């Protein structure tokens, strides 16, 4: 039986589209059961519906500072959908230790830097400021500390002269679209050795 995979997003969902498309490949060990957002207007929700995947939204705003209550609602709906794996794909809410522990070993994230470099936001601007000659993205298991957790794969891109953060982001995003499906497929099959794409 394939693993039931839920995807959490806050934005346009281009990574979600690639993940859902990849799960339609023959012999894939996972299937998409739910795409959920903290933003009812997230563009990714309409894209998921167009792909025939169930969607849901839990607006975080009415919960104010009560993150555990927001996350309890997420978990309730994820479990109602039978989710066995979660892919965070541009999900822009910091998660509490309680939520992460509940899903630990079953939750992946993609981050637009070569971790452990540049945890958090504005990764490409920081790489430019540091004078780095490459950037990239990382898929990792989610553990309580932000953007830490065992690395499942990385893909690298060059930083070119005259680059802007937006130009790097576009180059990296194209690699995210290769890396995340590759890592999900391996993870769902029980493989934990990282993969390195160039
Ligand atoms: C990606 O850059 C991802 O690395 C970051 O958020 C962005 C999501 O893009 N965490 P999309 O919504 O998948 O297009």
Please give the structural blueprint.
Blueprint: E1 3-9, H1 14-23, E2 30-37, H2 43-50, E3 55-57, H3 67-80, E4 85-88, H4 97-103, E5 107-111, H5 123-129, E6 134-141, E7 151-158, H6 165-188, E8 195-197
Parallel strand pairs: 1-2, 1-4, 2-3, 4-5, 7-8
Antiparallel strand pairs: 5-6, 6-7
5-O-phosphono-beta-D-ribofuranosylamine (GRF) is lined by residues 9, 11-16, 44, 89-90, 110-112, 137, 173, 176.
Give a brief rundown of this model.
By secondary structure, the protein is of the alpha/beta class. It is built from 6 helices and 8 strands. It binds 5-O-phosphono-beta-D-ribofuranosylamine (GRF).
Structural class: alpha/beta
Bound molecules: 5-O-phosphono-beta-D-ribofuranosylamine
**What pattern of helices and strands is seen along the backbone?**
EHEHEHEHEHEEHE
- Described by the principal axes of the CA atoms, the overall outline is globular
Q: Major β-sheet, in short?
A: 8 strands, mixed
The counted number of beta strands is 8
Helical segment count: 6
The radius of gyration is 16 Å
| Measured distance between first and last alpha carbons | 32 Å
Detail the poorly predicted runs: none
Helical residues, percent: 25-40%
Average predicted confidence as pLDDT = 97
Q: What is the beta-strand fraction?
A: 15-25%
Strand order of the largest sheet: 3-2-1-4-5-6-7-8
Comma- or semicolon-separated keywords:
198 residues; alpha/beta; eight-stranded mixed beta sheet; 6 helices; globular; binds 5-O-phosphono-beta-D-ribofuranosylamine
